[in-house]
Structures are given as structure tokens and as C-alpha cells.
Design a protein that fits this description.
- This protein has 6 helices and 11 strands.
- It has 228 residues and is α/β, with parallel strands linked by helices.
- Helix 1 crosses helix 2 and helix 2 crosses helix 4.
- The longest helix has 20 residues.
- It starts with a strand and ends in a 5-residue tail after the last strand.
- The mean pLDDT is 96.
- Bound molecules: S-adenosylmethionine.
- The site of S-adenosylmethionine (SAM) has 21 residues, from helix 2 and strand 5.
Amino acid sequence: MQEKEIYTTADGSPTFYMQALDEYYHSRHGAVQESNYVFIEKGLAHWRSLHPTAPSCSIFEMGMGTGLNVLLALKASLSQKISTKMTTIEAFPLSADLVLKEDFSAFLSPEELHFFKTIHESEWEEMISIQEDFQLKKVNTKLEDFSFDSSYDVIFYDAFGARTQPELWEDEVFYRLAEQLRPGGVFVTYSAKGSMRRALEKMGLAVERLAGPPGKREMIRAIRTSSR
Ligand SMILES: C[S@@+](CC[C@H](N)C(=O)[O-])C[C@H]1O[C@@H](n2cnc3c(N)ncnc32)[C@H](O)[C@@H]1O
């Protein structure tokens, strides 16, 4: 894809910036802060609060990017004792060499930094055990070409914004993703786009507008409250 440069966000954590598209991989207000708030706190931890005794959780992520959400999901899974299987898809993988130039030393423990490296150096297209209770499958594909063969408890929707990739914010995308959500499952994204909200509601999900992370007024979470 485009040339990328490391950008230090407001909380001190790094992300990538693509000048050609004027697009960032995370919020400029704080990469770790945004990922933790949107995907972990409002997504995975919320699912956990709805299913406190579930023995396992399956996560699907659209847009692996730098792997930060994967690492934070691993961290949360270990601390909350959730046995997790995560599938993350990425159309334009960043090389491990490039991603590992990001300096997360102020945010991650040595053990977490080691996991981050393992995530990036692990094989694609195979379910790999990153840690005993955290299995990861990285798939190099476009969402449009991905065939779902499973349903999920949690979906992280982390595409670039509609200004850059309008095709990833069409109603059909959300109809398709809503189909993959298990009863009691949680879909979460940093965006509060009205058309997405209506598409998810049309699919029978209970949609909530939540306060967004710093720098963002609102975000969306949607839950499949019953089986169809
Ligand atoms: C906002 S970034 C994701 C950030 C990421 N979750 C992280 O923690 O670093 C969006 C990602 O979606 C990827 N992408 C763009 N178009 C895609 C498509 N059609 N299918 C799958 N991934 C796509 C981009 O290459 C980029 O890595």
C-alpha cells in the first residue's frame, strides 16, 4: 500500500501515518488509549460482563494493521482468564520489521513486548498458539473476499474511515458481519456512522451509542440479544 511513517499519538503511544491518504492507523488522541477503550473495555470486557462463566471466546477483527488490538486482546484474555481464539484479517500486511520499529516500551511489559513480536513473526493462514489460552489466526485477505466459516462472540470493526475507504462502510458490509455474530455477541467499532447504525438495527441487533474515546464524541456497540 502507501508509504508509512511512525507517528507519536497524544498518549505517547506510536501508530503509523500515511501521508498519501492523510490517514492514521489509530486516533491521534492516543493509540493505546483508543484501542483499549473501544475494543477492549467496550468490546471484549463488555462481552465478559454479559457471559461471566463462558469458558471461551472467539473474536473476529477486521483490519489487523499494527496488531495492537490483537496484543491488547491477548493481554485482556490472560488477565480475565478467557480462553480466546482470535481471527484477524488484513488486506495489506505491514512487515514485522516495520511494525517492530514502533516503541511500545512505556506501555507494555517485557513479556507483552515478547508476545507482540511473536504475533508479528507467526505464520499467516494458520491457527497458532501465541500462549496456552490465546490462539491466533492471521488471514491475508480483503474482507470482501473472506469466506466466514465460523460465527463469533466479539467482532472488532477497525477499518480506515469512510473518507478513505467508503466501500467498507456500505450497508452490505454490516449485514454480512451481523450474520456472523453469535447470540449474546458484541460488535464494536470506533465509528458512530448513522448508516451503519441503521444497517445493524435492521439486522436485529440492539445498537448503543456510547461516549467515544478522547477526541471522539460517540462510538457504536451492537449486541445480538437473541438467536434468530
Ligand atoms: C485502522 S487500520 C487497523 C488498525 C489495527 N486494528 C491495529 O490495531 O493496528 C485499518 C486496516 O485495515 C486494512 N484494510 C484496508 N482495506 C481492507 C480490506 N478491504 N480488507 C481487510 N483489511 C483492509 C488496512 O491495511 C489497515 O491495516
